Write a sequence for this structure.
């Protein structure tokens, strides 16, 4: 599988793979639907920028993409919006949302 979400939410992809291999169709379907909902939120830009924003939103230093790609300003509300969407996704799946200590987002 090539999944951009592996960059910023690998636990969700891992949960999908584990449930599928375990034959848990109900869990696989639930994880898939949550994954697709989060994916829709992340399609506000291209996948490189979305991955960086997703990591920063979780509190992980993500570096910077090569020019000409630019990240939104760290004051942009998109970071908090993505953090909220990720928290909802992880909560819906009863998974912990691990966060780093990079202090871009103040809760």
């Amino acid at each position: 599988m090539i999944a951009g979400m592996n960059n910023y939410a690998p636990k969700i992809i891992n949960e999908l793979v584990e449930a599928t291999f375990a034959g848990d169709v109900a869990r696989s379907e639930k994880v898939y639907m949550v994954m697709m909902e989060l994916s829709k939120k992340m399609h506000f830009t291209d996948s490189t920028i979305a991955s960086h924003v997703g990591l920063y939103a979780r509190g992980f230093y993500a570096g910077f993409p090569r020019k000409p790609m630019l990240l939104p300003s760290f004051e942009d509300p998109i970071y908090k919006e993505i953090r909220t969407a990720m928290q909802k996704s992880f909560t819906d799946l009863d998974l912990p949302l691990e966060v780093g200590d990079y202090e871009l987002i103040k809760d």
The mean pLDDT is 92. The chain is about 50% helix and 0% strand.
